[in-house]
Structure formats: structure tokens, C-alpha cells
């Protein structure tokens, strides 16, 4: 117990894929050279393949929020009516951002732990036929809930509005058929399922979204999607790219391609299922039981206990970083991630550690009960007879 390996178990940043980290050491490369154009072009092509879309895919030097902002400032106009579906802290970011850019945002709110249903979106779009955009999170990381993007995509596709999806923790944790479901803008971030450090944001842009953007009148300069597209077509970025992160992304995408994006999604879903089974077995409650996300599992602390004690227990006893609740959920819930470079051994260790931490706080726990529940999920999926 005297050696504690540092483990990052949060829904961003996530554990790093070691070869991607090693690739970053080759960053003594200039970005206006043939070598870099080859790297950048290949990375964009791999990203497009991993996202599974024929839409344009662009990379920005920013955290995920930068691509969220770019989608607003490049594609919309002042005063335009948009629907913002929001069910947590990241949805609130869409609301604040669309308001900051002077859009006329119609909020479609769900309580924390709940989701906005496709039926509500459909009704809102019927009531307001002049809506020009719909904003949502595929996976709302703050509550651990996932939206029904497929059903909503179908609804938005029938209108002239564009569907803008913060899929920053949705990519790699849930199926997202960008072209098939009519997902006009799909946003990702490097520090989530892509297994590399923070600093890159990316987004896919549909023809419908580009068309809409032609009349956009909102101010923007650094995040200029048209300019990025023009440069990307030549294998370059508009401004100095984050060379080290492009090297990392290139390596991580090769790995994701070798695993298969569908398998990466299945992996997160299975780990999430095992985690839910384990915490339920331990008598804990899920925060978003109705439509739990596979990116992160949000769990309520036992009644009367501050979830910060569990977060602290992970850190001080095991050197592991898990996430507390955000905003008013702080102290109420704790969150464990499954997106990207996580495996079953992580889940077994996390659950075993959780059992120890709960016991140390005086919560009655049968050691091994949660671990066994997770093992049963593995055994069933792997066909291991018991
Ligand atoms: C992490 C995350 C973001 C982006 O946050 P940044 O700190 O800007 O990378 C946005 N939306 C969701 C759902 C996220 O999980």
C-alpha cells in the first residue's frame, strides 16, 4: 500500500495510449513542410474514417469547447431562433454560448439525471417552425446520461434546422451514424475517447451546415471553419497546429482503427454495464438510471455521505482520480469513466477500491460482492463458463 500508481479515471482527461504519448517526442517538425502535410492529411483521413462520415472533418487547436464555439460563430446569425436541449452542465454551456452570440435560444430543459426526449424536441420544432438549429449533448458527462441522437436526428433532418451535437464524450461510447442519422455538426475532443492529452477539438460539418453557414453574420476570426477547410484540403491548418498532439492523434487513430470504432464503443458499453452492475450490487443508486451513458457512470453517494469522501478515498488510498459532481451535484455523486483506453482490469480494480473506501467510511459492504457482479458481466460477454 506504499506504492500508489497514479490512475486517471475521469471522463476527460482520460488514460493515455502509451504509443501516442511516445509519438509526441517527434515534434521537431515544421508545419509548412511536406512531412507535416503528409502527417496532417493522413490524420484527417483517419479521423474521418473513424468518425465514419463522408462529411468534411476539421481539427482545431482548442479544447472541445473551441469547436462548440466555432459551430455557433461560423454557422449562425444574430437573433436566429435555435432550440437548446439541455440536461446538465455541458448543456448549460450551449445555452450560455448561444446567448453570448446573440442567438434567440429556446431552452428545452431536463432535470439533472434525466434526458430531453425526442417527443419533446419534435413538439418544440412543430411549435416553432422557424428554428434554425438544434443543440444537444450526445452524452451529458456531468450526469452520465445519453440522449437518443438517432431519433432526434430523424426529427431535425425533416426541418431546415441544422443539428449540432456535442459528442465530445459520445464519440467512441455510443453509435453515431453521422451521415445516416442526419447529424450536421458532430464535435469531439482529444482528451476523451481519443486517448491523448487535451488540446485538440474536431468537428464534422455536413453540406446542409456549410450551406447554412454561408449567410452567417456572427464575428469570428481564429475559429474560421471555411479557412480551416481550405487549408485542410492542402494538408495544412490555418495557423500553427499543435504538432505534438497531431502526432499523438495520428498514433491513437491507428490504434482505434486496428481495434475498430464499433469495438471501442462496445468496450465502453460493456465496462459501463459492469460498473452499473457492481455499484447496484453494493446498494448504490445510479444518478441517471433511465438512459445511462457508456462514457461515464454517475453514482449517488450513500445517503448522508458526501461523495467527496469517495473521491478523496480514491486519491489518498489508491492514487486514482475520479470525478465529483459538478455544480449543485457536487458532494452528491461521483463519476467513473469508461471512454477510450479503459479495460476490464480497470473496472475490477475500481470496484474493489470502492468497496474498501465505502467500508472505511463505515458503510456496510460485503467485500467482493461488487467485483463479482462486474466479473459476471465479463464472464457472460467473454463466454467464460462459471
Ligand atoms: C469534456 C466535455 C466538453 C469539453 O470541455 P473542454 O474542457 O472544453 O474540453 C464538452 N462537452 C462535454 C459533454 C464534455 O464531456
CATH topology of the largest domain: Aspartate Aminotransferase, domain 2
**Tally of extended strands?**
14
Structural class: alpha/beta
CATH superfamily of the largest domain: Type I PLP-dependent aspartate aminotransferase-like (Major domain)
- Gyration radius, in Å: 21 Å
Weakly predicted, low-confidence segments = none
> How many helices does DSSP assign?
13
Question: What is the rounded distance between the termini?
Answer: 31 Å
What's a quick, concise take on this entry?
This protein has 386 residues and is α/β, with parallel strands linked by helices. Helix content is 42%, strand content 15%.
List the helices and strands and how they pair.
Layout lengths: L6 E2 L9 H6 L10 H18 L4 E6 L2 H12 L5 E6 L2 H12 L3 E6 L8 H10 L5 E5 L1 E2 L4 E2 L2 H9 L4 E5 L18 E5 L10 E6 L1 H7 L11 H8 L10 H17 L1 H21 L14 E5 L6 H12 L1 E2 L1 E2 L8 E5 L6 H17 L8 H14 L4
Parallel strand pairs: 1-12, 3-4, 3-5, 5-8, 8-9
Antiparallel strand pairs: 2-10, 6-7, 9-10, 11-14, 13-14
This protein binds pyridoxal-5'-phosphate (PLP).
Give your account of this protein's structure.
The protein has 386 residues and is of the alpha/beta class. It has 2 domains: 7-13 and 260-382, Aspartate Aminotransferase, domain 1 (Alpha-Beta Complex); 18-259, Aspartate Aminotransferase, domain 2. The protein is built from 13 helices and 14 strands. The chain has helices at 18-23, 34-51, 64-75, 89-100, 118-127, 149-157, 207-213, 225-232, 243-259, 261-281, 307-318, 344-360, 369-382; strands at residues 7-8, 56-61, 81-86, 104-109, 133-137, 139-140, 145-146, 162-166, 185-189, 200-205, 296-300, 320-321, 323-324, 333-337. The protein has a 7-stranded mixed beta sheet with strand order 2-10-9-8-5-3-4, with helices on both faces. A 3-stranded antiparallel beta sheet has the order 11-14-13. Strand 13 and strand 14 (333-337) form a beta hairpin. Helix 5 (118-127) packs parallel to helix 6 (149-157) and helix 10 runs antiparallel to helix 13. The longest helix is centred in the last third of the chain and has 21 residues, at 261-281. The protein is globular. It starts with 6 loop residues before the first strand and ends with a helix. The relative contact order is 0.16. Bound molecules: pyridoxal-5'-phosphate. Pyridoxal-5'-phosphate (PLP) binds next to helix 3.
Amino acid at each position: 500500500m506504499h506504492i500508489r500508481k497514479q490512475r486517471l479515471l475521469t471522463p476527460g482527461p482520460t488514460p493515455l495510449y502509451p504509443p501516442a504519448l511516445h509519438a509526441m517526442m517527434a515534434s521537431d517538425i515544421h508545419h509548412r513542410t511536406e512531412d507535416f502535410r503528409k502527417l496532417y492529411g493522413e490524420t484527417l483521413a483517419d479521423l474521418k474514417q473513424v468518425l465514419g462520415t463522408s462529411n468534411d472533418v476539421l481539427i482545431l487547436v482548442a479544447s472541445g469547447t473551441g469547436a462548440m464555439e466555432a459551430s455557433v460563430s461560423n454557422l449562425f446569425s444574430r437573433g436566429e431562433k435555435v432550440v437548446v436541449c439541455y440536461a446538465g452542465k455541458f448543456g448549460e454551456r450551449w445555452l450560455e454560448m448561444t446567448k453570448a452570440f446573440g442567438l434567440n435560444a429556446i431552452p428545452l430543459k431536463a432535470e439533472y439525471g434525466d434526458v430531453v426526449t425526442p417527443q419533446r424536441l419534435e413538439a418544440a420544432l412543430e411549435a416553432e417552425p422557424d428554428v434554425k438549429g438544434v443543440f444537444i449533448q450526445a452524452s451529458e458527462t456531468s450526469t452520465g446520461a445519453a440522449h437518443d441522437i438517432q431519433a432526434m436526428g430523424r426529427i431535425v433532418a425533416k426541418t431546415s434546422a441544422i443539428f449540432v451535437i456535442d459528442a465530445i464524450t459520445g464519440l467512441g461510447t455510443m453509435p453515431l451514424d453521422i451521415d445516416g442519422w442526419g447529424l450536421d455538426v458532430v464535435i469531439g475532443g482529444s482528451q476523451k475517447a481519443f486517448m491523448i492529452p487535451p488540446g485538440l477539438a474536431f468537428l464534422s460539418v455536413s453540406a446542409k451546415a456549410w450551406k447554412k453557414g454561408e449567410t452567417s453574420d456572427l464575428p469570428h476570426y481564429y475559429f474560421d471553419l471555411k479557412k480551416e477547410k481550405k487549408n485542410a484540403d492542402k494538408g495544412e491548418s490555418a495557423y500553427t497546429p499543435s504538432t505534438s498532439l497531431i502526432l499523438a492523434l495520428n498514433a491513437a487513430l491507428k490504434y482505434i482503427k486496428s481495434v475498430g470504432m464499433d469495438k471501442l464503443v462496445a468496450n465502453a458499453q460493456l465496462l459501463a454495464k459492469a460498473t452499473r452492475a457492481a455499484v447496484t450490487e453494493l446498494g448504490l443508486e445510479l444518478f441517471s438510471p433511465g438512459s445511462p451513458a457508456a462514457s461515464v457512470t454517475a453514482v449517488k453517494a450513500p445517503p448522508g455521505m458526501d461523495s467527496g469522501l469517495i473521491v478523496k478515498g480514491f486519491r489518498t488510498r489508491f492514487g486514482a482520480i475520479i470525478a465529483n459532481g459538478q455544480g449543485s451535484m457536487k458532494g452528491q455523486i461521483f463519476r467513473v469513466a469508461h471512454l477510450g483506453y479503459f479495460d476490464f482490469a480497470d473496472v475490477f480494480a475500481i470496484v474493489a477500491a470502492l468497496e474498501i473506501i465505502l467500508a472505511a467510511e463505515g458503510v456496510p459492504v460485503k467485500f467482493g460482492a461488487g467485483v463479482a457482479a462486474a466479473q459476471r458481466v465479463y464472464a457472460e460477454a467473454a463466454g467464460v463458463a462459471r
